[in-house]
Write a structure and sequence with these properties.
68% of the residues lie in helices and 0% in strands. It is mainly α and 151 residues long. The longest helix is centred in the first third of the chain and has 28 residues.
Length: 151
């Protein structure tokens, strides 16, 4: 197996897991229980966005230790994925708005634990739409030509 194909498969594994989190969030929305499960719903969205961005980063020969150190920092993940060729346009504004709204609650892990949530959250459908748009663009990057590593 070539290093390029291994990196692509590694990125795909991250994208597959991001899509699974997205499907779980969509299932909550379809069942009409987002308001009853608001923090977990947005945790699923935020984590799916993180994994989607890390799919691009992982495809660039960044080792697992570095991916873990990057942590839950969505703006950092977006910057690093952008360095690897992720382009959010068109409709990048909506994706970035949702990502920005979820950045601090995700980083502080207030969506995962019973904590006071002082940050405003986006509308659930906007979050789902932004996630769909992000993951489509991630797939485009993974399907494109191999790019140089970040290291």
């Amino acid at each position: 197996m070539t290093p390029s194909s291994w990196l692509t498969r590694r990125g795909r594994r991250h994208l597959d897991r991001a899509r699974a989190y997205g499907r779980a969030a969509s299932a909550l929305a379809s069942a009409g229980i987002v308001e009853d499960a608001r923090p977990p719903f947005f945790m699923l969205i935020a984590h799916a966005m993180e994994l989607g961005l890390k799919a691009v980063i992982a495809g660039g020969a960044v080792d697992d230790d570095r991916l873990i150190i990057i942590g839950h920092d969505l703006p950092l993940c977006l910057r690093l994925a952008g360095d690897r060729g992720l382009d959010l346009e068109p409709a990048g504004g909506q994706i970035e708005a949702v990502l920005d709204a979820l950045a601090m609650p995700h980083l502080a892990q207030t969506l995962r634990y019973p904590a006071h949530l002082s940050w405003p959250l986006p509308e659930p459908q906007s979050a789902l739409d932004a996630l769909d748009g992000l993951l489509a663009r991630v797939a485009d990057v993974l399907d494109g030509p191999h790019r140089p590593t970040l290291n």
